[in-house]
Amino acid sequence: METVKITINGQELTAPKGELLIEACEMNGIYLPRFCHFRGLTPQASCRMCVVRVDNPKIPKLQTACTMPVSDGMVVTTDSQEIEEVRSAMIEFLLSNHPVDCPVCDRAGECELQDQTYGFGEDRTRSQYGDKENFLERQISPFIYNDPQRCVVCKRCTRVCEEWMDEFAITTINRGSATLISSFTGWVECSDCGNCVDVCPTGTLLHVPYKYVARPWDLKQTPTVCNFCSDGCSMLAGSRSENLIRTVARDGRGRTAGGINHDFLCALGRYTIDSVHSKERVERPMIRRGEQLIPATWDEALSYVAKRLAEIKAQSGANSIGVISSGRLFNEDQHTLKRFAAEALETKNADFHHDHDEIDLDSFFKYGVPTIATQEHIQNADTILLIGSDPNEENPLTAFSIRWAVRQKAARFFIVNSMPSRLERQASLSLRVREGSESAVIHALLDESKIGDAAEATGTSAEDLRAIRSALVESAKVVVVFGDELQGAALESLSLFESSIATPSSEVAAAARTAHIDALQRQVKSSNSTQKPSINENPYTYIVEHPTLEVATEPVKSETKFSFVPLVRYSNSIGAWQMGMSSAISGGMTAQAMLNASGGGIKALFVAGEDLIAKAEGDVTIVKSQLDKLELLVVQDMFMNDTAKVADVVLPVTSFAESQGTQVNNGSQVQFVRRSIPPVGQARPDWMVVNSIAKMMGVDFGYQGQLKNVFKDISDHVAGYAGLSHNMLANEEPPGSILQGRRPTGSTGPN
Amino acid sequence: MYTESNEKKLDEIISHYPVKRSAILPALYIAQDEHGHVTDDDIRYLAKRLDMRVNEVEEVVTFYSMYSRKPIGKYKLQVCRTLSCMLQGAEQITEHISHKLGCEIGGTTPDGKFTLQEVECLGYCDLAPCLQVNFDYHEKISTESVDQLIDSLK
């Protein structure tokens, strides 16, 4: 990166070339006050708080640091009598219409206006009470409360709405001192992401669920990771006296959880947390007696489950028991369940329930693991191809990153989809294909001769497909974002993109491969081992295995041209697959096959965190009758859902807020989730429940009741996790970065 | 909502600009001339015609004092209240008009003939104080000349 030398307040400093002065100052530890400037938004320069003096006879006036790029040899003063006076005058102006009602304002305590008035303003004003224009406070959307009088018209909210979300749902109306944050109809209809509220530097916009609920200084703020989609946004969970009060991407003081999402969060992470304290939560273990589920103690419930499972295992054989987990459970839970199935139950039937909406990871990873793109990859891509799914609805952070790439980096963006999406506004070309024909496009992109067939199958023009293909060939960095619409062969052939569409000649690639294999062989040789390494090569990838190599590796791909984002449905679907909770790995039945075989080959099901009835494909009654045929149905879940209602035993487990663990997002980044509140009722973490049952069945996993031992076991046995620990993951900055260089490659699980 | 002749005018205006949305200001005048103010329907329609969002159109309409979102009088009296005019007694003239017409600043007379507004600089500082009646400027006004003017309009 090119840097320039600048002098700030007599201090010689360096800054990246072209960086804004305000950011350059911040990088060097000099904070300039600001309201309208916000990282990631276009400059506004309306609050005039960041004014500085640039020592240059051609620039006679004070300049706003938020619009001035640094140049070599620039001499800047950020602090002087003159500047202090301007700032204090600006604060006085901004407060001229402000009600100064901090004692009843929810923002007080984390209010930028409050902080900056304290830091740069005066304790008196010349404006009279009668001069103030009065605007009534009102609710402007289900989640946003607006008190216009507190507004400093920094327009952060409207810019966030337009630039981050592409919604333009809120805007400023009128002008001058009468400017209000409002909209055409006065009621804001949007996706309720709530980002406008987070970035507001004053108490103008407030979260409705948080209004008059708590003061910021009373909240314990825990950095945690959202688990409502697979993007894995970090957020700050604010809790008070054992209650989860709010989750924000950034609090008013600009503190973030430091995650991959920076200051971004969507409606899912922000406004669905009331499920943690929902009335539907199961708070005590329950055992069915006749028609009713009767509360029991943990000991009763666990020993009952252990006894019944042992009975069924003895009577009908181990493989008559099935274990189904949800893609929402942490790695530790998945790993324990996997071991529970393999060692305590000794059944092959262990699967995480990937229903019809889930990407078939077994197919995707069939020929090794292609580079998985993180949000950073998406934001810096030259070309983005979206096939299937609608990230705007299902993975809002991915949608945000795509918009970012298009807006900030002028990336080319192509959509191949059967459904309309709001992202089409950003697309350079959007193909609406026939439902179920997305796979044909993949084949056409791989093989030019198939373009004609694909055009016919999808109902699009061959020219458009050719345009996409040539864009992929020309670009240096391509990110392919895909949803569950891709299946089977199309999904498997994604890993062929690198070799078929890549620009560098095949000779170069072949030379790199030979060099890498040679290097690995030399490494083995230098360890004086007598055993020869096993080398597996196929056209797509190669694997060199040897005990002395750190991980039995696929190539350490330097910088691949293609990277992929599988928009899996759940927060830890990829983690579940990596832990080996997949029928393809254990060689048993899939979750659906287990259901179909219930009453026949399957006598008992152990369901962790999945509502099979609600997720039923097609007829609900079929699944219900299938569950009825079981001799034993054990459900461990947070909620008394439909499946739990028909269960023989219900075991209450903790939510993401009450337990710790690791999860893997769709960028294949392992993230550590912290506990922010104590368990609700008698709920216990999933892994602990399963561990106890296994113990009662006479199998000890050696965890000694400690979560870190579970992760130790994972890092010992699961490829790619070697050397990782909770401590390391919890302290990395930003979360997930440790795995940037070495991604877990998936595994066959322990043993 | 739009008559055929207005449609033609709109097409003509749009053809002047490389980007459709640039035509928003003249297009709003067409809408305003039709009803005397810009209605909700106008905004929805123009947003559609000019590939804008309703919120963007609303932003423009409410920003400029030449457009009105509410029904206003036949004659819109806009007295400049910025420095030069203010020093030359614009405030007193505004009060005088308000008294004479019997309507508040920002209000409309009951007969729907006059609307009185205070606006920012009209660019006639050298001939202050200045009054704008619809699109006509009246400079160096006094209470007497304003009386005459209003009587002639009545």
Percent strand of chain A equals 15-25%
What's the N-to-C terminus distance of chain A? 47 Å
SSE arrangement of chain B, N to C: HHHHEHHEEEH
Number of individual domains of chain A: 4
Characterization of this structure:
The complex is a heterodimer of chains A (751) and B (154). Chain A is an alpha/beta fold and 751 residues long. Chain A folds into 4 domains: 3-79, Ubiquitin-like (UB roll) (Roll), CATH 3.10.20.740; 99-277, Alpha-Beta Plaits; 286-358 and 571-656 and 683-704, Rossmann fold (3-Layer(aba) Sandwich); 361-566, Dimethylsulfoxide Reductase, domain 2 (3-Layer(aba) Sandwich). Chain A has 26 helices and 29 strands. The radius of gyration of chain A is 29 Å and the shape is globular. Residues 551-558 and 739-751 of chain A have low confidence and may be disordered. Chain B is of the alpha+beta class. Chain B is built from 7 helices and 4 strands, in the order ααααβααβββα. Chain B has helices at residues 4-15, 24-35, 40-49, 54-63, 83-87, 90-101, 143-153, and strands at 75-80, 114-119, 130-133, 136-139. Chain B has a 4-stranded mixed β-sheet with strand order 2-1-3-4, with helices on one face. In chain B, α1 packs antiparallel against α2 and α3 (40-49) packs across α4. The interface between A and B is small, with 11 and 12 residues.
